[in-house]
What does this fold into?
Amino acid sequence: MTAQALHCRDLQAGDILLKVADTAVTSRVIQFGQSLAGGRNAQVVHAGLMFDPYYVIEAQAAGITAHDLRVQNKPYGYYVYRCGDINMARGAGTCAKMMFDIHSRAGSMKYDVLGAVGSLFGFGTGKPLTPGDMDALLDRILEGRNQGFFCSQFVVYVYQFVAEQCGKPATSVFAYSDAKATPSVLAATLVKHPSFTEVGCLFPNER
It folds into this structure.
């Protein structure tokens, strides 16, 4: 079955983008690490959240950043997953943008390299943060205090937090700790998740 080819006009706030490994050294290292750890979707090496049809918010080397899919991220290919709850999806897009704005001002959300490496070998333990813990973490972020994230952790944390704000338990979206969510684990979850649908693929250089 051929994947549906998407363009930016087809994307929506809250869409989860899963980046497919390319020839870059970083992609190859992440893919190898996930394969070594037994990841079933090791070719998925990065994740981000759409704010609107053009800008993806993502945690990477410079921290929480926003990139235009038509410019900086044009060469990359992505699987696109969409949340069936439109309010939660929009909330996730808004929350991601808020965190980007805070990092732009305070520089407080750096990329968590150690967390990313540790997540490769730590999945299977740890539960989602409690609502109280999530609120405390958000307060920390709003105060501009240092809080690191790696890419898929950022996506999972945002959706878990927004779910709680929408009156749903964090476990209804992702039933594990955000700190354990490697890109391959996130991909494996989304493939069979009842609340998310793969709407297609964004192919390299086709926007």
In short: The CA atoms of residues 67 and 73 lie 7 Å apart. The chain has a mean pLDDT of 92. The helical segments are 25-36, 86-106, 113-122, 131-142, 151-165, 183-191.
